[in-house]
Structures are given as C-alpha cells and as structure tokens.
Specification:
single chain; 242 residues; alpha/beta; Rossmann fold; Arc Repressor Mutant, subunit A; 2 domains; 5-stranded parallel sheet; 4-stranded antiparallel sheet; 8 helices; 37% helix; elongated; binds calcium ion
Length: 242
Amino acid sequence: MARDYHILILEDEPATRAMLVSLLEAEGYRVTAAEYAAQAHELVAHYSFDLILLDLNLPDEDGLYIAREVRAKSDVGIIMLTSRKEDIDRVVGLEMGADDYVTKPFFPRELVARVKNLLRRLSPPRGGRRAEGAAGRDLRRFDGWEMDLAKRSLVDSAGREVNLTRAEFDLLTALVNSAGRVLSRDQLLDAIGSQFWTPVDRTIDVLVSRLRRKMEADPKSPTIILTSHGYGYKFAPTVSTE
Ligand code: CA
C-alpha cells in the first residue's frame, strides 16, 4: 500500500534531502526529490503526487509562494519544512493551503508519523483507482449546502463547488458530524489528525476563519460556525443525512 503513494521532496540542503529520501523509501513510499523550486514546478506538472514535503527556505523561490501556487491547482497533501521558529510562517503557510508543518531540526520518527497521518486522510493513492459512484456516498445537507463526504466535495446553494483544502474539509466534517454540540480545539485537532500541535497552536482558529471566509455571508457575524469563547466551536445549522 505504501508504495502506491508518490511523495515529492523539495529541499535544497543535500544532507537533509538525502536523509528524507532514504527515510521515506525505507517506509516503502515512491519518492522523487528536487533541489530547486523550478524543478518542483515541472515535476508537479507531470506527476500526480500524493504529498509534497516543502522546504520553506529555498534559493530560487519562497516556499510559501510555492505552497500557494501548488494549492491553487491541486489538493495534494503539503507538509512544510521550516527552520524558522516564528508562528507567523506556520499561520501564513496554513493560510496558503499547507496541511501541516515540521520544524527543523525534527526527529525522523515524528516526520514519518506526520507523513503517514496526512496520507491516511488521503484516500486512496492517486496512482490507484478511486472508488466512485453511488456506493459509499455520504451526504450532509444544511442551509442549502450539500457536502459529500465520499467525494470530499462541498457545494453551495447556487450549485457552485467550493474548494476546500484537506484540513478545512476534515475540520468541517468533524463540525458537521457533531452539529449543535460545542467541540473543543483539542477535539478538533484530533479530528484533523494533528496530534502533534501544541496547546497554544492557532491552527484551528486559522482553519475556522478560512472556512468562514468561504462559507459565511458575513464572516464577521458567522451563522454557520459559531465561536464558543475560550473553548472551541459549534456547527449551528441543522444537518440532514441521506
Ligand atoms: Ca533550505
């Protein structure tokens, strides 16, 4: 199963790049490595990667810019590798559509765990056949919206599909499946598979504000995802399933 997943590593430091390649190949993944952003753009245009490990600090292009470019065209999993300690890069990276990040220096075991975690949320490998059709369809309807958990799609009342990143979709799924109940930030972090985040992490708040911008008529006065101050969030609409 692991060998069906294709991972792109974009990292300019030779030692780190070689370490990442051997680490992930040892886990059975198909791995392609690039040193420059220009190479990565070409590779992304030619192959269907399941996940990209993206170093933010590259000689020819800012990794944050690459994350935004790639995310605009694809829902590939993106894990940022950053040696910068500032929260701002993590928050901006998540805003740009990255799914997760690892701060250098990292423990190999932690990196592998995050890769596995994100790939688990990706189903099945892009190289493999995707199950389509009526079987396994899992619909959620609320306030004119339709969410298909199997197809991982969200359609608004006008029939327009709204593009969500993987983390946004997973978070919305958790909220919708617990509609009417307040979920804590910890519960929501669990739901998006990020058990490594620290308690002060703003990931959930960032994801919620992104969802609000995409879904709320007025993101400043939300009626869909409500804030429970100091605790978490609640999905307000009544949800029907069929
Ligand atoms: Ca670098």
